Amino acid sequence: MNELSPALPAPALSATSNVSAAKPTQEEAEEAIRTLIRLAGDDPTREGLRDTPSRVFRSYQEMFAGYATDPVALLERTFEEVEGYDEIVLLRDIRIESHCEHHMVPIIGRAHIAYVPRNRVVGISKLARVADAYARRLQIQERLTVQIAETIDQVLKPQGVAVVIEAGHQCMSTRGVHKSGVSMVTSRMTGCFRDNATTRRELLSLIANRAPGALEG
Ligand SMILES: [Zn+2]
Fold first, then answer.
1. What angle do CA 121, 148, 203 make, to 5 degrees?
2. Annotated active-site positions, please?
3. β partners of residue 138
4. CB of 79 within 8 A of CB of 142?
5. How many angstroms is it from 214 CA to the middle of ligand 1?
6. I want to staple 150 with a disulfide (CB 3.0 to 4.6 A). Which of 4, 19, 20, 112 is the partner?
7. How far is the CA of 113 from the centre of ligand 1 (A)?
8. How far is the centre of ligand 1, averaged over its atoms, from the C-alpha of 52 (Å)?
9. How far, in Å, CA of 141 to CA of 161, rounded?
10. How much distance in Å is there from the Cα of 152 to the middle of ligand 1?
11. Ordered per-residue pLDDT tens for the chain, 217 residues
């Protein structure tokens, strides 16, 4: 059981919570999708839509795979030979694909994850996988940011962790106020990133000084 920030609601924290016990069967899920097709005003039996429920079922399994992943376990294999490295390790521009829990539409953006090691480091791809494990759930960006930071803090016990996420919310761009090109930025800093203005400034300039075109793709 992860003990992350106590301020966070419990269901979001457990990697494999007992919600899975209440999971509908594929058949029940496909029936629900046919209901939504009818709600949209179309006919789920017409040819183009006939296989849509099973496709949506499969994409749900992919988009929400994070519920079956334990982010703490992902980080547990760490390396202790840091050879005295005690500067910032930054993984920049990690693509984030999540879904807003209020409207169930995509949140697309990028995360920058940094830490200053104390005794141990972790393979950098693991940081991206932790981000994925939390992103592939129904989320709000604020909680996603905190969960990534707290998990790294808890397992690696570094001198500090910083997570910055910039993302666009389709619930704002394709519905509601219909404002596109707007991004929301959230951050969570712990330890030296929170307490030391120089370290924080160094991080922010590392994030800002990316190569042109590095964001694309
Ligand atoms: Zn929303």
1. 65
2. 100-103, 141, 169, 171
3. 99
4. no
5. 28
6. 4
7. 24
8. 24
9. 17
10. 27
11. 444 444 444 444 444 455 656 889 999 999 999 999 999 999 999 999 999 999 999 999 999 999 999 999 999 887 776 677 889 999 999 999 999 999 999 999 999 999 999 988 898 899 999 999 999 999 999 999 999 999 999 999 999 999 999 999 998 888 898 988 889 999 999 999 999 999 999 999 999 987 555 444 3
Residue 39's H or E segment, with its range, is helix 26-40
Residue 99, φ and ψ in degrees, nearest 5: -135, 130
Q: What is the dihedral of CA 46, 51, 52, 57, to 10 degrees?
A: 150
Q: Which residues pair with 99 in a beta bridge?
A: 106, 138
For residue 176, report the distance from its CA to the centre of ligand 1, in Å.
Answer: 9
pTM for this predicted structure: 0.85
Tokens of 178: 């219909």
